[in-house]
């Protein structure tokens, strides 16, 4: 009788119809009123998210890059919805917080085990948002892919290559790969090399090339372009020109434009002044000739 | 009208009307849908050509030595860009921008932390100088040394969003101020007032282009004044 009285005490005053019958009582009873309140709370969280998003846009649109601002706005809106869900769901299903936490942890473990790569990408995406090595509109090279960053999302980053091809890079790969950002600094330096014939005047060529670069609008006044003889080469005298360009202009036009507009002008002007560009050449001495003439060419 | 080898034509003989600019090796042709709209030509902020990549104008001039607590008014030149606007019921739309001044860009500061600027080299004048019409404008610049030491000033960086351009038939002018706090820090700004005989206020280009900007009253130069 003691066991039955223990059971009686445990069941309380429940009638057989009220005894444990399945998940209905484990989850508790859900009334329409609670569902409506939950829906209203979700709607309020959604509207609050929109209002906060509007404020963030007005406050930070001039000081933050557009894709970073978009990410923060999305995170804020998702966070508000999650807060409402975490606060409302235990009450909605009449669950204790500890049971709800257990269910949540179990679900997260299942998700984590089955989608490790996705989790890695999410974590890498958060780290990239914090570190910000690149941003929307930057001209970058990532794992051999060269192009403009279109968007940085939580899981992946898309870049548009110079050929107009869209490449999607998972954030875990992006975080681990060396990234070259050509847009990180406001100015970029380009190096050009020209080879002129030995019989031409290198000082005159340097002067002409310097004039061309100084007259070109997008070659920066400061730092000024450097033009100098860099090498007495095998076939020619090499003249090097180092010039700084605005990154924002250089990257949008692609390196092709700089090369075609500057190099063509230099060639035309030098040839107009009688300075030529030699083909690769060798001077060949025959042994018999050198023996007869005594000139070894040294 | 035709000046310096460039001609502007607005023809109403054919429908629709046409705006045509020829010169400097280029031709710009735009069709105008309405005959009732007014065409306005006035100088605009000189940071648009050949491409708008910076809102800043940097002017380099011969060094000026300022004693502590002193003010000096000097006159500089600046490049003029000419804007052609279409006015429709009080709203201005930019049709075209051209210039007779050769553009040049520069870097103010370091490649890592600096700013790209539109560059102009100017002489220094004590009185209103004879500027080349339609190519150069006149800036009345008031320099003040707010520091406790002697400072040499040889350049100023000005933000185009606050420029108050005035013009007359052939000249453009603006009044600017430069307060120097140290050899590295200075603040530049503009005064809304006619200057140098130019009395017509020019249309602000960023308003006409509907560029949303936060108008600052001044620009802070942080990379030196010489």
Overall geometry of chain B comes to elongated
Write down the Rg of chain A.
Answer: 36 Å
Helix content estimate of chain A:
40-55%
The largest sheet of chain A is: 5 strands, antiparallel
Order of helices and strands of chain A: HHHHHHEEEEHEEHEEHH
Summarize the largest interface: chains and residue counts.
A-B, 19 and 18 residues
* Biggest sheet layout of chain B: 7 strands, mixed
Instruction: Give the strand tally of chain B.
Output: 18
Tally of contiguous helical segments of chain B = 1
| SS field, number of helical segments of chain A | 10
Low-pLDDT windows of residues of chain B: none
Q: First CA to last CA of chain B: what distance?
A: 41 Å
Low-confidence parts of chain A: 19-27
Describe the global form of chain A.
elongated
Question: Strands of the largest sheet of chain A, in order across it?
Answer: 4-3-2-1-5
Structural class of chain A: alpha+beta
Task: Give the SSE layout.
The complex is a heterodimer of chains A (298) and B (226).
Chain A: H1 2-11, H2 23-27, H3 32-60, H4 66-92, H5 97-114, H6 116-131, E1 139-142, E2 145-152, E3 156-161, E4 166-170, H7 171-176, E5 179-181, E6 187-196, H8 202-215, E7 226-232, E8 237-246, H9 247-272, H10 287-293
Helix pairs in contact in A: 3-4, 8-9
Chain B: E1 2-3, E2 6-11, E3 17-23, E4 26-32, E5 38-44, E6 56-66, E7 71-79, E8 81-88, E9 91-99, E10 105-108, E11 115-121, E12 136-145, E13 151-159, E14 166-167, E15 172-180, E16 186-191, E17 200-201, H1 205-208, E18 218-221
């Amino acid at each position: 009788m003691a066991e039955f009285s223990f059971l009686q005490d445990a069941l309380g005053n429940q009638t057989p119809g009220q005894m444990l019958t399945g998940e209905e009582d484990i989850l508790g009873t859900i009334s329409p009123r609670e569902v409506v309140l939950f829906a209203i709370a979700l709607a309020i969280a959604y509207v609050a998210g929109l209002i906060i998003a509007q404020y963030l846009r007005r406050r930070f649109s001039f000081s933050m890059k557009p894709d970073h601002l978009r990410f923060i706005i999305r995170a804020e809106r998702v966070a508000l919805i999650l807060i409402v869900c975490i606060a409302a769901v235990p009450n909605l299903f009449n669950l204790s917080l500890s049971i709800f936490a257990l269910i949540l942890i179990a679900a997260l473990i299942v998700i984590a085990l089955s989608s490790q790569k996705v989790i890695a990408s999410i974590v890498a995406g958060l780290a990239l948002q914090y570190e910000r090595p690149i941003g929307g509109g930057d001209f970058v090279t990532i794992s051999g892919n060269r192009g403009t960053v279109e968007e940085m999302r939580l899981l992946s980053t898309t870049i548009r290559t110079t050929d107009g091809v869209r490449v999607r890079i998972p954030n875990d790969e992006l975080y681990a790969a060396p990234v070259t950002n050509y847009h990180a600094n406001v100015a970029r330096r380009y190096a050009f090399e020209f080879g002129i014939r030995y019989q031409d005047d290198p000082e005159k060529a340097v002067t002409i090339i310097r004039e061309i670069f100084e007259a070109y609008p997008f070659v920066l006044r400061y730092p000024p372009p450097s033009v100098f003889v860099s090498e007495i080469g095998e076939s020619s005298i090499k003249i090097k020109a180092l010039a700084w360009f605005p990154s924002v202009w250089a990257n949008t036009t692609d390196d092709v434009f700089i090369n075609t507009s500057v190099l063509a002008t230099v060639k035309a002007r030098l040839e107009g002044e009688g300075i030529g560009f030699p083909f690769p050449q060798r001077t060949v001495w025959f042994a018999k000739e050198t023996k007869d003439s005594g000139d070894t060419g040294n | 009208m035709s000046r310096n080898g460039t001609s502007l034509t607005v023809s109403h003989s054919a429908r629709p009307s046409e705006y045509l600019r020829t010169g400097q090796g280029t031709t710009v042709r735009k069709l105008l849908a309405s005959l009732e709209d007014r065409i306005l030509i006035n100088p605009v902020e000189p940071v648009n050509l050949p491409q708008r990549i910076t809102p800043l104008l940097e002017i380099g001039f011969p060094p000026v030595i300022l004693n502590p607590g002193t003010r000096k008014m000097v006159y500089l030149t600046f490049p003029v860009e000419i804007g052609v606007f279409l006015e429709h019921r009080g709203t201005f739309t930019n049709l075209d921008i051209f210039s007779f001044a050769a553009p040049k860009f520069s870097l103010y500061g370091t490649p890592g932390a600096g700013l790209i600027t539109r560059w102009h080299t100017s002489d220094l004048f004590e009185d209103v100088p004879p500027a080349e019409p339609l190519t150069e404008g006149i800036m009345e610049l008031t320099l003040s040394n707010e520091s406790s030491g002697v400072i040499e000033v040889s350049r100023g960086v000005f933000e185009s969003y606050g420029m108050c351009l005035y013009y007359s038939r052939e000249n453009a002018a603006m009044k600017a101020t430069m307060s120097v706090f140290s050899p590295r820090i200075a603040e530049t700004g503009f005064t809304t007032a006619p200057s140098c005989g130019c009395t017509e206020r020019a249309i602000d280009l960023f308003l006409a282009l509907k560029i949303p900007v936060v108008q600052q009253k001044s620009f802070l130069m942080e990379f030196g004044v010489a």
